[in-house]
Amino acid sequence: MDFNKFDSVAAAEKGADCHMKDPATLEPLFDEKGKPCIVTLLGAEAPSVRAATRELQKARAKAKEATGDEAEDGISLDEIHDRLVEVLLPRVVGFKNISNGKKPATKEDAAWFFNLNRMNGRDDEKSFAEQCGEFSSKRAGYLGNASAG
After folding, report:
1. How is the chain split into domains, by residue range?
2. What is the DSSP string of the chain?
3. What are phi and psi of 44, to 5 degrees?
4. In the predicted model, is pLDDT for residue 126 greater than 80?
5. Rounded to an integer, what distance in angstroms lies between the CA atom of residue 8 and that of residue 94?
6. 39-91, pLDDT tens digit by residue?
7. Can you tell me the distance from the alpha carbon of 85 to that of 129, in angstroms, rounded to the nearest whole number?
């Protein structure tokens, strides 16, 4: 058996398409022409994502050291959302069939996109950031069904 089909690191670095859902109903979203609204994301196992995450962790540690702030208790949903967006920004490759006004969204629009809605703590509703975070961290999104065939 060729185990290369389980190379989730290489697959994560190539990226994959996440079909976005309505944050309130979780119904798949389509543009006015019926094409799926997609965010192309690198996976959490991608070397470039892991490097970006390490740099973010170092920056947070320096900031914490500079302020002397050790408290993590009572973190708000807004703080969790903001941290999730920070982690997701380097994972965004681009958008398909998603517009920012009249212009097609680009990688530079990622922060705008993730801040259109926020986490609310409900399991039956998912912000765009939550959807992308879950997709990016799941191997199946990048490997597909590696055991098939």
Report:
1. 3-143
2. --GGGG-HHHHHHH-EEEE-B-TTT-PBPB-TTSPBPEEEE--TT-HHHHHHHHHHHHHHHHHHHHHT----TT--HHHHHHHHHHHHGGGEEEEES-EETTEEP-GGGHHHHHTSS---S-TT---HHHHHHHHHH-THHHH-STT--
3. -60, -25
4. yes
5. 20
6. 999 999 998 989 888 888 888 788 777 776 655 567 888 999 999 999 999 99
7. 6
